Amino acid sequence: MTAKVLFIHGYPDTHRVWDPVRAQLKGYDTVAPDLPGHGRAMPRGLTGTRWDLAAWLTAELKKFSRPPHVVAHDVGGMVLHSVLIENPELVRSWALTSTTHPDWPWHHNARVWQTTTLGEAARDEYLAYPRKYQVIGLTEAGVPAAHAPVTAEYYDRTMFDAGLAFYRSSVYLGDWWPAEDAELPPGLVMWGARDRYQTPEWGVRLAARTRSRFVALDSDHWWPLEQPEAGAAELKRHWAAVDKN
């Protein structure tokens, strides 16, 4: 029996970012929940810090009767690092984009969000724009034009505040970088060859660290939207190898 597949999105996204990939996976049992505060209300007691998201993902994984394959992008990939370190037994296999390398410097937007007052000013400025200008801004940030209106529809104050909480708790992520001798489930590192936020070299380092296969797709940061067919094909190849063992 093939394991189920859990997809975890990033920021500022919802589960909808996975729709093109999941459409290529007919016959697979896939689940794609929204991160807390992303397209839905923030659950009581959570704020969106990286520790909140790690606890949430751990709880989601414990709902499965058998460990699922997990595919994670962007912030979701960073949070998955925590689970792989703390609870690897909950994961059948993993595939992710975005690392927690201790030397990686955060990109410009993240540094703004991590800064008190500047982050709130960026939030308020964005939310004050008419929707068409929000869409333009998201497109300029790399969100594919066809998907930017969908992102803008759900990128509200709740999601922005969740993002501020995550980025401010994540100035340093080196404690989530896997140990060199870590016993991890089988992994796949998938990356956009032109990723503007984390260049592929970071993915190459992660693949070497975890003894995993590295794949560069012909895309910018949002490979699930830009290369869903190629990404799904690599995932099928990865899962087939894992499930054969």
Please explain how this structure is put together.
The protein has 11 helices and 6 strands. The relative contact order is 0.17. It has a single domain (5-244), classed as Alpha/Beta hydrolase fold, catalytic domain (Rossmann fold, 3-Layer(aba) Sandwich), CATH 3.40.50. The radius of gyration is 17 Å and the shape is globular. The chain has a 6-stranded parallel sheet with strand order 2-1-3-4-5-6, with helices on both faces. The protein has helices at residues 19-23, 50-61, 75-86, 108-113, 118-128, 131-140, 148-154, 157-168, 200-210, 223-226, 228-244; strands spanning 5-8, 30-31, 69-72, 93-96, 187-192, 213-217. With 245 residues, the chain is an alpha/beta fold. 44% of the residues lie in helices and 10% in strands.
Features of the shown structure:
245 residues; Rossmann fold; 6-stranded parallel beta sheet; 6 strands; AB_hydrolase_fold; AB_hydrolase_sf
CATH superfamily: Alpha/Beta hydrolase fold, catalytic domain
The dominant shape is: globular
CATH class: Alpha Beta
Helix/strand structural class: alpha/beta
Report the β-strand fraction as a percent range.
5-15%
Run of helices and strands: EHEHEHEHHHHHEHEHH
CATH architecture: 3-Layer(aba) Sandwich
- Distance from first to last alpha carbon: 12 Å
Q: What's the total count of β strands?
A: 6
Protein name: Pimeloyl-ACP methyl ester carboxylesterase
Domain AB hydrolase-1: 5-232
Organism: Kineosporia succinea
Pfam family, one: Abhydrolase_6
